Amino acid sequence: MNMSRRDFLKLAATAGVISIAPFKMDIMKVFAEAKDYVHINWLNGAACTGCSVSFAQSADPDVIKILTSITVGNSGLPIALPDWMYVLHPASGSLGVELINDWINHSGPGKKILIVEGSMQQEGFCETGDKDFREWVKNCAEVTDNIIAFGSCSAFGGIPHAKGNVTGAMSLQDFLREVGMDDKAEKIINLSRCPGHPDSLILTLASLIEGVEPELDSYNRPVAFYGKNIHNEQCPYRPFYDRGIFANFGQSEQGCRFKLGCKGPVTWTDCPTRRWNDHTAFCIDRGICIGCAEPAWPDGEFGPFYTELPSLPTVLNIPAETWGTAFVGAAAAAVAVHAGRKALTKKKEEKGEE
Ligand code: SF4
Ligand code: SF4
Hints:
- Strands 2-1-3-6-7 form a five-stranded parallel β-sheet, with helices on both faces.
- Helix content is 40%, strand content 9%.
- By secondary structure, it is of the alpha/beta class.
- Residues 323-354 have low confidence and may be disordered.
- The protein folds into two domains: 5-226, 3-Layer(aba) Sandwich (Rossmann fold); 228-354, Cytochrome-c3 hydrogenase, C-terminal domain (Cytochrome-c3 Hydrogenase, Chain A, domain 2, Irregular).
- The longest helix is centred in the last third of the chain and has 32 residues, at 320-351.
- It is built from 16 helices and nine strands.
């Protein structure tokens, strides 16, 4: 591909790239060249660490391979990029706290990127070392150049923020506004989904390292990954929907998943084309889309998961069920006409007519 890395990253940041595997070498170069220049700090709030696992399991390119193939100077020793990451970093305990403080106090040349996984809770529910997690995030946000909220808990509150919410969990953006850091909140990059998709983080990081700011939607999500509606623009099961053919529990696996509770009509992500697990499948192939990337998820119209949306989206202003009836009716009529023609032909043959 005759495209500079900068062009590619611009493309990834604005138009979306389905598979990033062909750009593996470009991405590795970006990270390798950034080793002394970019300082990444990955903090974990109220979360299940599924986003860290999702990132670590990125298959092509393999993130662990990227991190271990970048060596420190001529030593041959692999560096651990980010500077700190709770789940993957070899350090822990007081050494981990020291590394976060080093990152905060680092004043040399270069860029600082803060990644937060998990939602923010009220004081007293989450502590790291001798400080409340809220304090850590505030201190880190003050000195960073870019902030990425990775996964739906961090981007929109996610599961900890769901109805009941005993810990007062909220999104990173709401937290930053609450503590008066509106300027930081405005520029946050939200990479929602539960868990976050590794491609979205790798491409966003590579873009920021190259100095390309991704174009964001009204929820601060990169348009490249969240610019298209699943149901209207991408779902491979849409032809079933248009013909009124629906999968039903215990009856038929074939068909559109709307009646199983699919939230694709109210969800904007590139899951059907980017897919998951090394680009092999996505949720609707195995069940339904629960809408995990949307701000109101998992409440509002997104819950309970296996409940139909209150109304069927229309096709050319006609409900899909009507299309279904019309389709079945038309098909039945076509079968009847075909049978009639066949019978007529048979009679003619018996009479010896042409
Ligand atoms: S309802 Fe779900 S499965 Fe059906 S076409 Fe829309 S997105 Fe696809
Ligand atoms: S298909 Fe839907 S539920 Fe699955 S990851 Fe994408 S947005 Fe989330």
